[in-house]
Amino acid sequence: MDIFLQQIINGLVQGSIYALVALGYTMVYGIMGLINFAHGEVVMIGTLVTITVTSLLIKAGVPLAVAGLAGLGASVLACMAIGWGLERVAYRPLRNAPRLTPLITAIGMSIVLQNIAMIVWGRNYMTFPPLLPKVDYEFAGANFTAVQVMIVVVSGLTMSGLVLLVYRTKLGMAMRATAQNPQVANLMGVNSNRVISAAFVIGSALAALAGVMVGTYYEIAHYQMGFMLGLKAFTAAVLGGIGNLAGAMAGGILLGIIEALGAGYIGDLTGGFLGSHYQDIFAFVVLIVVLMFKPSGLFGEKTGERA
Amino acid sequence: MSKWLGPRSATGILLIAVALIALPFVAALGGQAWVRIVNFAILYIFLALGLNIVVGFAGLLDLGYIAFYAVGAYAYALLASPHFGLHWPFWAILPIGALIACFFGVLLGSPTLKLRGDYLAIVTLGFGEIVRIFLNNLNAPINVTNGPQGITLIDPVAIGEFRFSGTSQILGISLSGPQKYYFLLVALAIFVIIINLRLQHSRIGRAWQAIREDEIAAKAVGINTRNIKLLAFAMGASFGGIAGGIFSAMQGFVSPESFSLIESIMILAMVVLGGMGHIPGVILGAVLLTILPEVLRYGVGPLQVAVFGKMLIDPESLRMLIFGLALVLVMRFKPAGLWPSPERKRELQGDA
């Protein structure tokens, strides 16, 4: 039983990170119908910026908490700038282009960001400075750390904040209007360019936060880390029904838990035939199965064939 | 077909033929590595044309195309290497590889083809990853794929006693291994291109285009959209399988590393960058995106030294950086691709 609980906790932590990244994908998709393939790289840059800033400050003798917060702030700002720039350079000029064209520029930007990161930070793995004390807490036979608690709490708060933003503010209303129909929203006085920029900037801020969490959780970072993380988060967004905020959150957490449980139990389930290195398969198998029965994701609205 | 026989076309074909025959010898002046690069360009033409059937003709976004390439490559590797002690002839395995890949195409397609656009994309992406992860891990408890080490010592292509690896003398001309493969590849490429050209204007090809433009309308005029879409998947997959088999034989080595998602994405980039659905465009895209990174590989280092007097930036990352920028810039200024089909160009200009 404690293994089960342990894997649920691990899954919840990983899932919260997926959910934060998935929100970035889903916001952009909901508004523009575009898969922002470079989003995973934004997460990666978020992690690396935090490492650099925090380590420098710690070396300069600044207290841990201040250094950590400064690192977080720097990475959020950096990522927001990148998200904004990304949209301006790679997507805005192509808004009326054929559907696959922005996909290719997204891939191009992803390659560019990855290689910029490699030029700036090098090929080696970087270690994340430990910010929170390594204390194990125990609950019903399962262990968890302060970092894990922090990740779940902070992402919960952030997501609530985002929901408030989207459903209770004027900007949120403009976003929802643009998502429904950009032309009509424009006629109603919504500046859709600004709304789209805002979606990219907010999504990138969430990505930066997720990046910091990944860094504190795994204590290691690398210029190629964004790709798989982005892929999983995108899977989570699709699982929940892409374009749907609640779906992205639920999809992220669900994916995290399924992966953790899968990795924990696959050996027993298959009589030792498949080991835990098949962990990465779960995300995709679950995705395919869910989409076979619910073609627009768990929470996606049913749309026409040519939506 | 009569326009093919006009005197101007005849001269054109003759010129192209001469250029194709001369190419491996010209490339060899820069070293055998360049002949190999040219060979890979042709291999990528196969792949890009195969994916073009799915994405360009039928309008189904497939991000896991490399899986079929992998299936073909491993089919050849397992049936013609010391790994299982099997040494079947190339010509027997190639159709088998195509069939297995085709089977996988149907396997992936049948449950997923009702998904619309981007959902289909992510499912195919997931499928590609699943295939790669299995290839990576199927070395235990039964060693099927030899895991991350991959399979080595794969038999080269051979026709009777004539082997395509190593140097040999033909009609007094010395031909290296890659040069011999080049001629084999060109022959196959001409075959594949003709199939594609004929497909495009066939009943099936027109059905694909109808589905791409408007699926509901296509259904309404009596096209069995499900079967026709499956057919696109299966045919695209078979081309991938054939390319995989040739890759395996040419390299003599396969490992899961060659079949990562980024490869699928590169092939998609070739199709879109060249001009989706337009065969000459797709060929151009495949050639450019294979050659450009290699040219950059050899050019970026010396260029830096020439301009700045020393290596400022790691040439490997600079090369990929330029490559990524090139993708963005081409799409920015040529949204329909470098060489789009005339109809598509008209449509886009009509919109503006």
Automatic annotation (TrEMBL), chain A:
Annotated protein name in UniProt: Branched-chain amino acid ABC transporter permease
Keyword Transmembrane: yes
InterPro entries: ABC_transp_permease, BCAA_transport_permease
Entry keyword annotation includes Cell membrane: yes
Organism: Candidatus Dechloromonas phosphorivorans
Membrane topology term: Multi-pass membrane protein
Cellular localization per UniProt: Cell membrane
Keywords from the UniProt entry: Amino-acid transport, Cell inner membrane, Cell membrane, Membrane, Transmembrane, Transmembrane helix, Transport
Family from the record: Belongs to the binding-protein-dependent transport system permease family. LivHM subfamily.
MF-aspect GO terms: L-isoleucine transmembrane transporter activity; L-leucine transmembrane transporter activity; L-phenylalanine transmembrane transporter activity; L-valine transmembrane transporter activity
GO biological process, one term: L-isoleucine import across plasma membrane
A GO term from the CC aspect: plasma membrane
TM ranges: 12-35, 42-58, 64-86, 98-121, 141-167, 195-218, 281-300
Automatic annotation (TrEMBL), chain B:
Entry's localization field: Cell membrane
Keyword Cell membrane among record annotations: yes
UniProt name for this protein: ABC transporter ATP-binding protein
GO cellular component: plasma membrane
InterPro entries recorded: ABC_transp_permease, LivM-like
GO-annotated molecular function: ATP binding; branched-chain amino acid transmembrane transporter activity
Chain ranges passing through the membrane: 12-35, 41-61, 66-84, 90-110, 117-135, 181-199, 230-253, 265-288
Source organism of this protein record: Candidatus Dechloromonas phosphorivorans
CDD domains per the UniProt record, alphabetical: TM_PBP1_LivM_like (cd06581)
Signal peptide: none
